Amino acid sequence: MCSDLAVRVRGLNKCYHVYDKPHHRLLQMLTGKGRRFFREFWALKDIDLDIRKGETVGIIGCNGSGKSTLLQMICGTLTPTSGELQVNGRVAALLELGAGFNPEFSGRENVYLAASLYGLSPAQIDERFHAIAEFADIGEFLEQPVKTYSSGMYVRLAFAVVAHVDADILVVDEALSVGDAFFTQKCMRFIRTFCQTKSLIFVSHDSSSIISLCDRVLWLDRGEQRQTGPAKEVCEQYLNALFGALSEQPVDAQPQRKHIARLGQPELVWKDQRTDLVNASAFRNDLQVLRFAPDEAAFGGEQARVSSVVLTDSQGANLAWVVGGEQVTLSVVVDVACDLARPIVGFFVKDRLGQTLFGDNTYFSYQHQPLSAPAGSQLTARFEFYMPWLAKGDYVVQVAVAEGSQHEHRQLHWLHEALVIRSHHDPVATGIIGIPLSAISLSVA
């Protein structure tokens, strides 16, 4: 096996014997190869794959395509029927929920159990236990049996273990879909750092997260290797095939009528003409704004510290609930501890996978007449915008204060999760966010 390869797969096959009746297993044992009482199900057929060290590879495919089977063989929990599989390095995996945990053991006991299975000695686990417990952040539940845990707590503890076992290859199979926004962001920061030097195998039905994280993608279809190549190219082909199959399904034909379906003209250019209609329906984009979290993941804060982050309406009232399309103001207050010649305050809005959706900062507004801030003063930055429609899920608002210019600056304080925005309804037709459209028309000639 080449020294720069983390995983090498050649002609890999996995076959299961499917018995229609329980007693057929006994009959098969008694008759041997003389007669078959089973049907063969080939979960994987002739798979070839190379994963280099430091490479991130995604695996996509519909349910039942063989993704989890391939991962379990790479992790060593399944044996191939035939073919060659070589793994170079320690593999840490997040597969099905709670895998590797004993439900009767406490969280502490399961940390020692799981870490020992990855090859760590008791002394090494002792050294890392505090860091594991801090990463999981489940408090007193660490001493309770894991059978009492919620699905989110399972994932917290499992990911905390795999993040501290010095793995060379990390395998993630849809496990982060059950975590809360704060923890998911923490995991994504770890994964992106991990990917800089080590190998990641990532399985997800979310093509946008695959494209964001992965260098290459393996597309499996009914156990067969359909395509392997650059992430964007393969994901596009996969979606084309998926939606092409759906488009072939019959639909109820409706008689065509010559008309133009067009709503009234918007009152202002920035108001989507569908806003009133959407807000009066079940598709209204209700966005819950959770608390300001200054004690969550952050760095800096000695020379300047963000002391308040709030969303307000056009009258300045704090908002705990926003409807997509409404005008809002993001206000960021910074306490200044030393003289700042060219302060910059900015924000990003990111989805649960850490992908930046939109954001801005104050630099360009004051680049020609910099606004200085003396020690002991207070900076207040306000960003006025119309809240886009957000697909259902959790989003975080990152806030930072820096000094310098757009391209050359030093970060003074950065909050990874200053606010959490939870979208409860999904009005977005396509993509991650929706933007106001001045007009939509449909005509038949």
UniProtKB/TrEMBL annotation:
Q: Which GO MF term does the entry hold, naming one?
A: ATP binding
Swiss-Prot/TrEMBL keywords: ATP-binding, Nucleotide-binding, Transport
Q: Does the keyword Transport apply?
A: yes
In terms of Pfam families, this protein maps to: ABC_tran (PF00005), Wzt_C (PF14524)
Q: Which InterPro entries does this entry report, sorted A to Z?
A: AAA+_ATPase, ABC_transporter-like_ATP-bd, ABC_transpr_TagH-like, Bact_Polysacc_Export_ATP-bd, P-loop_NTPase, Wzt_C
Q: Where are the transmembrane segments?
A: none
All residue ranges annotated as the ABC transporter domain in the record = 7-247
Family, per entry: Belongs to the ABC transporter superfamily.
Q: What is this protein called?
A: ABC transporter ATP-binding protein
